[in-house]
Amino acid sequence: MSPARTPTHVVTGFLGSGKTTLIHSLIAQKPGDETWAVLVNEFGQIGIDQAMFEERDDVVVKGLPGGCLCCQLAFVLQAGLVNLIARARPDRLIIEPSGLGHPAGLLDLLRGETFREALEVRDIVVALDPRRLDEPKVREHETFNDQLAVADAVVLTQLEHASSDQRARAHTFLETRWPRPKWVHEAERKTLPLTLLEDGGEAPFKALERPAAHRRLAAPPSLEGSFFDPAPRPGTPRCETASSLGYTSTGLRWHPDDRFDLDLLAQLLSALPRAARAKGVFHTRDGWKRLNRAEGALSVEASTWRQDSRLEIILPDAQTSADGHASLLERLRPLE
Fold it and tell me: b vs e for 260-278, b when ≥16 Cβ sit within 10 Å of the residue's Cβ?
């Protein structure tokens, strides 16, 4: 039976930090008699993260693509949460903001009058890839620092790609912050123990002002009749781009009957600039596959997704070009 207030966990972190992987590890620890809900916010337009979760009756996943929860999507977040809680009646709620999302507006809503009696916000967790501390553009990014500032605890991720020196520098960096994190966990096997979230209790309030960039609203997005439906015609992909906060997302979507060459897909995604964040799910001649690329490393896994093939690429504006998009679209052709 669900508690009077649903334990709610926010797992934040910058682009490519491994938030979704950590949430997968939490789901793997879910007690069999519980139902969980997962709300995923995405910077891009096509809702790729929702396709990254396996379909199951005891975990309800809802995606909110097309912007940041605290600004572009603030007006649909409350309605989406109310609907998700009423439909799933979850024993636990996990929220994954966009890697470019500022957490202030989300936390204001979760602790506000609408959800105060329904949700118990536990310690805020931030995923940190130690390698990002070597990148001045990331280390000095306002959202990157505010995600760390609002977090109560830190999970060091992507450790299979980080050196021992980078790990040590990450620990030193976190020890010098004030207030210091309650705990720092090294996700050696890409796992976040559920017990760490249970022990923290309700998160203390931290005042954090939203930067001006997150207060500017473009035309409000609509989730009705959007890029999800209807499916593209076979052999005719749909493409949509959007720019905000210094980054541009490119979303591509194909008919589910279109099939791709997995080796060519891996080659194309591996050739993207190192700063590119790319995620996709494709119908290939080797079956349905989930591709995930961050910090130059590409992983490929089997997928149960069958709705369509889709790809999301996020790049800094300085490395985004219309010619590059056109070239990629030309090379990403389904098999004849």
Answer: bbbeebbebbeebeebbbb
Please state the domain extents for the chain: 6-214, 238-331
pLDDT tens for residues 23-49?
999 999 999 999 999 998 876 667 777
Give the number of other Cβ atoms within 10 Å of residue 166's Cβ: 18
Which residues does 40 contact at the CB level (< 8 Å), separation at least 6? 20, 49, 50, 53, 61, 62, 63, 64, 96
CA gap 177, 64 in Å, rounded: 32
Q: Which listed CATH number (3.40.50.2000, 3.40.50.300, 3.40.50.150, 3.40.710.10) goes with 6-214?
A: 3.40.50.300
- In total, the chain counts a number of residues equal to 336
Element (H, E) at 325: helix 322-331
- Using CA atoms, how far apart are residues 192 and 22, in angstroms rounded to an integer? 6
- Residue 64 pLDDT: 77
- The answer to whether the beta carbons of residues 264 and 288 sit under 8 Å apart is no
Please report, for the chain, how many H helices and E strands are present, in that order. Answer: 10, 14
Give dist(CA 246, CA 124) in Å, integer: 25
Helix (H, G, I), strand (E, B) or coil at 120: strand
Q: What is the pTM of this model?
A: 0.77
How many Cβ atoms from other residues are within 10 Å of residue 149's Cβ? 15
Tokens of 44: 């891009």
Q: Which CATH class is domain 238-331?
A: alpha beta
Closest CA relative to residue 38, chosen from 8, 64, 60, 65? 60
Cα–Cα distances (Å) from 241 to 70, 168, 325, in that order, read 20, 38, 10
CB 114 within 8 A of CB 124: no
What single-letter DSSP state applies at residue 317? G
User: Which residues are CB-neighbours of 43 under 8 A, at least 6 positions away?
Assistant: 15, 67, 68, 98, 99, 100, 101, 244, 245, 247, 249, 314
pLDDT at 223: 40
pLDDT digits (tens, 9 = 90+) for 147-200: 898 899 999 999 999 999 999 999 999 999 888 999 999 999 899 999 999 876
